[in-house]
Each structure stands twice: as structure tokens, then as C-alpha cells.
């Protein structure tokens, strides 16, 4: 084991030395770039073997925690359980190292318009399903629907979209606008979730690590709000990845019902409003359920792991020339397709989502603090289209399918062969 670890570290250092000059050139271009950094092309050696479309899966890698609030009769305790599920989604999404301790490449692949990711989790919580789709390219936006219809808890669904915006101010900062709503069918209850900003540490040393900062909120339609304040390690004190979360009744912010404090990358304590310790949670010990996807050869050409397979293979073998070549093939094909659509007066039809004027649930649950609104920022609004989904399922049941592109028995729909 020790030999493997030292070998990995050596390889990391060799890669860092090899690309150090290009890295500093990239940082220089970032510092002088005007506009949204998500549109800036990153050097091949910085790319992670994962598309942003797959990031929606981080919401459900602990399905039992996702559905746990649906089994709790107390609205106050449901607010706590929703918070604990949310905290479980942060560790692996923002970690600087993977499960094997290797440093992760932090620049995910930018999805193309229409890119999709379909998956499911099967465990003691039943079957939890995911549909994720890149619904916009300028600005970039990823929409998703996650649901579990197990009769034992009456049904849970999580729906939302994320519109990232990156900019440079001393370091790289990432804002994530959009909406995320967890709905519990049994109680007709909604929980509106905002996302914290991210900034990137370690740009000069090449030890890149994301940190969460600022404040995010979770507000329920049952009258409870959670405020989560994030902080990072300072020059003299503090720990990285720290947070303090307070659950309180709407209109009574100063009287905490629960206070959770610790590190979202490690562990945290749960105390009641009187400061009595109720629990200590080690996030690293939580069992992750792997997402199941169809084999690449059975996927539709728009599915992310099939579309990016040659790029990912090149990234994993550190073949930066192949990375650039394969990535350019996809990007050039997309540019050509957009030109064809423009010439024909057409627009790309989204498969599972539809843009709408407003979202009344988000509007009613958005948290307003110091003149700012959290969870209902002004941007495009995308909703899962049940009609589109039903038509796909009906086509599947009618036998309109291909053995090459058949989908899960779980009901995640068949997609035709048209690109």
C-alpha cells in the first residue's frame, strides 16, 4: 500500500512540473479575462474525466438520507433530516481528492447543448432515478429530476437546475444560481435549497482545492428555515471546509432549534437549541451507493459517457494531445449544428425539460436577507416536463425501441437515434 501511495504522489509531482509553465500562462489569462470564466477554454491537462451534467448525481449518492425525511412525522425533525441529507452531498462533490486519495483534476468537461445523463441507485431505499440534461449552453445550465416512488415513504422528488457563473477576483470564484426543490408527497411539503458560492484555493502552488464560502439556506413550506454559514482556514486559526448550520422557525431566527457545526468534508456535531449534544456524524463513514448507468455501447449518442468516452480515455492516460483532438471534434460538431439550426430558423428541442416564466414554489420559499434573495435569483427557469417524459415512456411501451439503445427496466425512458 505504501508503495502505491508514494508512486501516485510522484506521478502527481511529475505532471505538475511538466505543465507548470502552461499552468501559469492559464492563470494569467484567467486574471485578465473579462466575462464568465465558464466560457474560457482550459488546458487539456487540467480537465477532469467527468462532465458537469453528471454532477446532478451527487444529490443522491446516499439515497437512504434523501428519503429519510419522508418517514418523519414531525415537521421540525424533517427540517433537520433535510439539512443532514444536504450536508452529505457536499463532501465528494467538492473534495480535492478522490476516494483513493489521489488529487482530482478540478476542471470538469463543459457539457454540450442536449447532453444527457441517465442513472439510478438501487439499495435499501428502493430505486432512485435520475435524469440530467444540459438545457442551455449560453449561459450554461443543467436541469435535473431525481425521484423515488417507493410506497413505503409515499414518494420523494428533487428537481432543479444550476446556472454556474465563474469570475476572477484574487482567485477563481463560482456562483451557482438556479433552483433546487425537494418535495415530499406524503406531507405535500417543499424544501427550497440554495447553493453556496465556491472559491478555488491553491492556484499558485498548483494544490488546487475548492472551498465553500458565504451563506446558503434551506426553507420549508412547513415554516422552518436553515441558515448554513461556511468558512475556511485562516492564516492563524480555523479549519478548512468548516460550517455552522442553524435551524429555526420562520420569524424567530434568534431562537435556534438545532445547531450543527463541524467540517462538511469530515464530521460535525448536532446540538439542540439548549446546547445539548444529540449526535456526532462522521461523513466519511457514510456508505455511498454507486449510480448505475447503461453500458456505453448501449447508450444514446447524446449520453455523456458515450459522447465523451474518447476524451475521458485520453484524460485517464494523460494523453493531452488526444484530449485536445477528441474534445475539438465534439466542439466543432456542436458549432456546425448550431449554424445549421440558425440557417433553418430552428432551435434545439429539449428532451425532458421546458423553460417557463416563473416558479411559484421558489418564489414563495426564497429567503430574503439584507436586500438579497437566496434561492430565486433572476435567471432562466427550467421545469421537468412530465408530458415529454410520458411520451418517451409510451413509445417504449409501444415497442418503439432499439436493442442497441434500450433503457433500464426502471422506467428511465428510451431515446431515439436522432442527434
From TrEMBL:
InterPro entries listed in its UniProt record: OSBP_sf (IPR037239), Oxysterol-bd (IPR000648), Oxysterol-bd_CS (IPR018494)
One Pfam family it belongs to: Oxysterol_BP
Gene Ontology CC terms, in alphabetical order: cytosol; membrane
Highest taxon of source: Eukaryota
Any one GO MF annotation of this record: oxysterol binding
Annotated family: Belongs to the OSBP family.
Protein name: Uu.00g029990.m01.CDS01
Amino acid at each position: 500500500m505504501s508503495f502505491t501511495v508514494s508512486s501516485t504522489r510522484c506521478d502527481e509531482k511529475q505532471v505538475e512540473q511538466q505543465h507548470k509553465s502552461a499552468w501559469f500562462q492559464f492563470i494569467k489569462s484567467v486574471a485578465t479575462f473579462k466575462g464568465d470564466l465558464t466560457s474560457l477554454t482550459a488546458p487539456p491537462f487540467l480537465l477532469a474525466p467527468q462532465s458537469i451534467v453528471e454532477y446532478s448525481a451527487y444529490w443522491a449518492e446516499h439515497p437512504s438520507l434523501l428519503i429519510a425525511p419522508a418517514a418523519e412525522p414531525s415537521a421540525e425533525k424533517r427540517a433537520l433530516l433535510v439539512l443532514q441529507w444536504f450536508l452529505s452531498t457536499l463532501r465528494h462533490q467538492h473534495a480535492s481528492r478522490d476516494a483513493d486519495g489521489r488529487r482530482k483534476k478540478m476542471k470538469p468537461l463543459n457539457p454540450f447543448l442536449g447532453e444527457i445523463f441517465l442513472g439510478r441507485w438501487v439499495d435499501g431505499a428502493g430505486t432512485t432515478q435520475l435524469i440530467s440534461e444540459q438545457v442551455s449552453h449560453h449561459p450554461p445550465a443543467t436541469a435535473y429530476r431525481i425521484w423515488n416512488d417507493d410506497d413505503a415513504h409515499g414518494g420523494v422528488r428533487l428537481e432543479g437546475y444550476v446556472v454556474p457563473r465563474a469570475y476572477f477576483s484574487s482567485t477563481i470564484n463560482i456562483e451557482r444560481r438556479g433552483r433546487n426543490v425537494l418535495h415530499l408527497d406524503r406531507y405535500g411539503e417543499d424544501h427550497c435549497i440554495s447553493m453556496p458560492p465556491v472559491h478555488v484555493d491553491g492556484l499558485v502552488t498548483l494544490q488546487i482545492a475548492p472551498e465553500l464560502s458565504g451563506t446558503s439556506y434551506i426553507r420549508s413550506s412547513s415554516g422552518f428555515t436553515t441558515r448554513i454559514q461556511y468558512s475556511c482556514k485562516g492564516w492563524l486559526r480555523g479549519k478548512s471546509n468548516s460550517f455552522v448550520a442553524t435551524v429555526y422557525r420562520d420569524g424567530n431566527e434568534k431562537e435556534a432549534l438545532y445547531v450543527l457545526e463541524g467540517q462538511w468534508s469530515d464530521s460535525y456535531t448536532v446540538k439542540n437549541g439548549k446546547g445539548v449534544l444529540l449526535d456526532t456524524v462522521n461523513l466519511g463513514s457514510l456508505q455511498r451507493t454507486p449510480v448505475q448507468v447503461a453500458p456505453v455501447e448501449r447508450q444514446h449518442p447524446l449520453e455523456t459517457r458515450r459522447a465523451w468516452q474518447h476524451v475521458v480515455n485520453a484524460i485517464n492516460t494523460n494523453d493531452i494531445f488526444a484530449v485536445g483532438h477528441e474534445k475539438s471534434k465534439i466542439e466543432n460538431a456542436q458549432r456546425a449544428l448550431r449554424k445549421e439550426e440558425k440557417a433553418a430558423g430552428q432551435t434545439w428541442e429539449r428532451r425532458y425539460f421546458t423553460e417557463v416564466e416563473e416558479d411559484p414554489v421558489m418564489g414563495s420559499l426564497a429567503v430574503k436577507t439584507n436586500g438579497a434573495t437566496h434561492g430565486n435569483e433572476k435567471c432562466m427557469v427550467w421545469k421537468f416536463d412530465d408530458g415529454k417524459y410520458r411520451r418517451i415512456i409510451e413509445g417504449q411501451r409501444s415497442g418503439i425501441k432499439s436493442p442497441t439503445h434500450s433503457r433500464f427496466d426502471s422506467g428511465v425512458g428510451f431515446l431515439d437515434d436522432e442527434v
